[in-house]
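tmp note - MerR family transcriptional regulator
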Amino acid sequence: MQETTILRTSDLAKELGVHVNTIRLYEASGFLSPVPRGSNGYRCYSPIHLEQARLTHLVLRWPYVGDKQPLIALVQSAANGDPGMAMEFAYQYMAQIRVERTYAESALEFLERWAAGHTMDISSHPMRIREAAAHLNVSVDMLRNWERNGLLTVPRDPANEYRLYGSTEFGRLRVIRMLVRCGFSLMAILQMLQQIDSGNTNNLRDALNVSHDTKFVAVIADRWLTSLLELEQRTQQIIAQIGRMIEMFYQQ
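out:
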C-alpha cells in the first residue's frame, strides 16, 4: 500500500471488521490524527490512519486490566504523533499485567500447598463469626457471602447454633481470601473447591477456569490466569503495532 493512497471510512471499517460508525467514533474520540476532507466533503484517510485505527481496535478491545484511562492515553499519544510515549504506556501496561500474573501464581502456589494437606492456620479455640472475621481481617459480610455461595460449610455449636470457625475452616478461608484478592471469581473458586472436596487435587489451575457455552465471557475473573496470559500476548501485539507505526513515521 503506497503512502499516497487515499482510503475511505468503509475501507478502514472493512480492514478491521468493524462498523463504519466505529471508525467515526475513533476519530471523534481523538484516536486518529486529523483527517482531511476532499473537495466532495468525504474523509480522506491515509495508511497511517489505518494503522492508528488498528492500534485503537487492538488496545481498547475488552477485556483489559485495571483502569482504561492509560490505554486511552496510549492510543491518543499515537494519534498525536508521539508513538514513543505510546510505547512507554504499552510497556507500563505489560508490567501491570505481569504483576497481576505474579499475584495469581503466588495464590495458586498457596492453594496447592493447602490442597496437599499442609496446615495453613493454627487457632487455639473455635471462634464465632465476628471473632473469625477479625482473625482474618475480613468483614462478617464477606464470610457470610462466601458461605452463602457454597465455598465452605461452617459447623455449628449444638447448644446455640452459632457458627464455630476452627483451624480447618480458617485454612480454607485463607485460600479463598487470597484467590479472591488476586482476581479469581467466586464461581471459579467454587468449581475448584468442589473438585478438591470430591477428592481430586490434580490440575487445580485448570479447575479455576470456568467453561462458558458462548464466546462472550461475562466475567473475566472466571478465566483469570488464562485471561492474563492472553492479555500479555495481546500487549506484545500492541508493542509490535506501535513499532510498525514508528517505522512508517520514519518512511514519510
